[in-house]
Amino acid sequence: MYAHWGTFTKHATLGAGLSFAEDAMREHGLTVWDPSDNRDYQVIGGKRDVIATVVCVPQPGNLWITVSAYSNDSGLAERTRNNIRTHIVEAVRFD
Predict the structure, then answer these.
(1) pLDDT, tens digit, for every residue of 61-70?
(2) What is the pLDDT of residue 45?
(3) Gap between the Cα atoms of 75 and 62, Å rounded
(4) The pTM is what?
(5) What CA–CA distance (Å, rounded) separates 63 from 36?
(6) Contact predicate 48/62, CB 8 Å
């Protein structure tokens, strides 16, 4: 099993960060098992050959976010982590 992870901060609310994470997983073909609407600080999803987790921790003025992906294929885990992270970094909330 291979694991790839990374952290970053984003100026967003907890709800927005979790929503961005869920949208990213769905956009990249993952089934979401632990959705954003229960606001438990994480979103978990996956498919047959990869699992991903996003954890959002509120801090003063931003969120600390970690994106992790796990697979028997190191390249798949890395691509999944990178795709989800990029989606969240680039996401903008429109009200």
Answers:
(1) 999 999 999 9
(2) 98
(3) 30
(4) 0.94
(5) 15
(6) no
Sort strands 50-59 and 62-71 into parallel, antiparallel or unpaired: antiparallel
pLDDT, tens digit (0-9, with 9 covering 90-100), for 16-43: 999 999 999 999 999 999 999 987 999 9
Which residue, among 71, 74, 85, 70, has the nearest Cα to 27 in the 3D structure? 85
Instruction: Tell the residue number behind the tokens 């994106």, with chain if given.
Output: 67
DSSP assignment of 11-62 equals S--HHHHHHHHHHHHHHTTPEEEE-GGG-SSEEEEEETTEEEEEEEEEETTE
